[in-house]
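Entry, Tuesday afternoon. Goal for today is a structural model of the target with S-adenosylmethionine bound, before we commit to ordering more compound. Inputs were pasted exactly as handed over by J.K., no edits. I checked the ligand SMILES twice against the vendor sheet because last time a stereocentre got dropped in transcription.
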Amino acid sequence: MSRTRRREAAAAGGIEVVWPGKYDARGRRVRPRVEAASLQPSEHHGASPPAHDNLLVHGDNLAVLQALLAQHRGAVDLVYMDPPFATGTAFELALPVHVPGAGASTLRTPAFDDRWPSGAAFLDMLAPRLERIHALLAPHGSLYVHVDPTRAHAVKLLLDEIFGADAFQREIVWRIGWVSGFKTRARNWIRNHDTILFYARDPARLRFHKVYVPHPPGYVRRKGTPGRVDGIAIDDVWNAGAADLALSGADALDSIQIKSFSREKTGYATQKNASLLRRILAASSAPGELVLDPFCGAGTTAAVALAMGRRFLAIDRGAAAIQLARARLLREQPQASWSLLQTEPPIELPLQCTRTGGGVVVRTPADAPGPAVALQLEPGRDVTRVRVLSVALGPAVDAAAAQQVAAGADPLLELGVAWDADPAAPYRADTLRLATAEAAIDRELLGPARARGCAIVQLVDLDFRRVQLVVHWQRQARTLTVRGTMRVAAASLHAAAPQPARTLSPRAGSRGASRRA
Ligand SMILES: C[S@@+](CC[C@H](N)C(=O)[O-])C[C@H]1O[C@@H](n2cnc3c(N)ncnc32)[C@H](O)[C@@H]1O
């Protein structure tokens, strides 16, 4: 056994998790070099100037964590992380939409892929991130790792190795709640909990603020005396005892995924309850302290941190997650000051715009090789207006559209769309107004087509650079749905809109994907 290997096993209390690829042939630990991401400011909200905290970062968290070390080494008070659990699922974001004339429907967008080729790949992903999190934590700091029983044991051994076995504090069992009929069909004990592993950066200096849950109604102690005024001290099994089960409304600890209705729901499949995060933040952080969530999904930790007067750093590489988190912060914390950072430069795509007497005609350029749409965002702090410069949905968009084209009924060739999303504003033929506070999710625009049927154009703002266009085209009682992911050209072409037919060349790899509904 090599020296490093012996050291790592010792830190882990003599037991070590080893996976193929952890060590090289000479027994040295494999640690690929990580370039720090270049964090580029893209939006700032609120009255205070941009700072080094209250950051929502779109990018891979390994490179982002590496970059955060420059400013935040040893300065993070609490980390909550809810990484992919290796569930074997490709998660989607499902947004309910209403299509006039076609009724209710669901718009599905890829969210994140939790399929791993092997357990080794999962640990390979997690280990370098945990090492950086360890370096970011303050000496009194805490780490909560949310996993499920399929990975909890390997992750615990990995944490023992990186933090030291004595840094382990508690294994919190979170009972997810009511179990659906489908789950109860398992010929086994019914699975009903996640595991949250709680570690201290340094057990001798750990700060912990003891948290109590109110006594359930009618509670009397065995001796007949009333209980502590504070309530019952919370143990490490959550959402199972009488006091937790008596919690209701937003305080209830049942997973919001099993609730058919919850105001908190954003549509993100793995979104966690704010109540869960409030409990963790109350115990392991104080007002003004810094909370990091490197797998932030729909932004639960960031939203709870702001609501509880903490500062946050939140990272996700998924465009859908960032869009939801961004929309949520704007909606739930309209006064807060925070910034959105990107790790990739904006992408430009071919733009084409033809202006006619009445406004902009949205056209399919005959030579468009695939779906591409470019929108122009007005430069400025907030996105207040989006101007459609072109829609390019070539025959490759999907087979059905191609057939329509072949039959001489291309739904998009002459679609003059009248954009008027703001009922309060005077009618503008070529301007679509989007209030950032509403984040433009699920915005529907009714465009009276100048010819051949009627189209409903829907814009779904995935993040500040990509917008999904969904065209529901109705003709003779048939609805054809075409989807294309559009890229937003950030600041370059504002003056192009009134010009006739103007085309700019794309940057490599910038074409959006499309799929048939
Ligand atoms: C289980 S979800 C987190 C859900 C979150 N706790 C919430 O309340 O919405 C895991 C998230 O990790 C993100 N993710 C996975 N790998 C990542 C990586 N390498 N860098 C950044 N984010 C990543 C996924 O996009 C996904 O949003």
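The first strand starts at residue 40 and ends at 45.
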